[in-house]
TrEMBL record:
Domain ABC3 transporter permease C-terminal: 183-301
Mode of membrane association: Multi-pass membrane protein
Protein name (Swiss-Prot/TrEMBL): Cell division protein FtsX
Keywords carried by this UniProt record: Cell cycle, Cell division, Cell membrane, Membrane, Transmembrane, Transmembrane helix
InterPro entries from the UniProt entry: ABC3_permease_C (IPR003838), FtsX (IPR004513), FtsX_actino (IPR047929), FtsX_ECD (IPR040690)
Compartment annotation: Cell membrane
Oligomer and partners: Forms a membrane-associated complex with FtsE.
Entry keyword Ligase: no
Domain of life the protein comes from: Bacteria
Family: Belongs to the ABC-4 integral membrane protein family. FtsX subfamily.
Amino acid sequence: MRAQFVLSEIGVGLRRNLTMTFAVIVSVALSLALFGGSLLMSDQVTTMKGYWYDKVNVSVFLCNKSDAESDPNCAKGAVTDDQKKQILTDLDKMAVVDDVTYESQDDAYKHYKEQFGDSPLASSLTPDQMQESYRIKLKDPEKYQVIATAFDGRDGVQSVQDQKGILDNLFGLLNGMNWAARAIMALMLVVALMLIVNTVRVSAFSRRRETGIMRLVGASGFYIQAPFIMEAAVAGLIGGGVACAFLVIARYFIIDHGLALSEKLNLINFIGWDAVLTKLPLILATSLLMPALAAFFALRKYLKV
């Protein structure tokens, strides 16, 4: 009987404050959707780092005849065969190096034509203007500085470039977007909590006569508070369900279908469904506990029981 009474009171409370209940659902849904989105963005950045950092190379570019005339790093002339052999020998001795690939001027010219064949500059270049290089795969991509320190400024070396630096700029942008989403999420979360507290206060005020009678007949404090707490929890849970649905739909249409980024951007290793599904229980638990706790503390202050 008591459980039936509590459930009936929940329905009454939700119907009485339908507009505010709807506002709570929307604010909780938006804030938790952003929360889930920020978690998935973090997973995506981690996945991309693991995928790309394993493929990045450090390139040691060697001086050619053109560099000897224009680049201060190549003031002593183009790289010699002895210098190339010594560089390769030193690379093979380094513990951080996993693999070394030599790219000749002809190979560099061929790759350039494949990538930038439509550019006006491509028609004016010749193979002898391209740079020979050693493409180095590291065992730990974070150890780029070891290569740079060893070969920067050496005779015959024009420059040492790390592809990881380019990726770091991309990941920095993605992390910045992620923190922006978290800031908006925090703002929406505050709005949601304020709406929950206000909804509970209005609901308690509108039923102050009933709660007064319940106190007179000896009802316990928890029994009086339970309908209000569960109203907030139900509204929050609905919002959490909407947030979960939004994340699933977004994953489906953005990555798999609709925009189909997984097909259009083959170079990006997107997160799988397992990453999305493991976040849903956390979102639902948060949507249930957050409003319930907010209502509980609001009632302690505004409902004297």
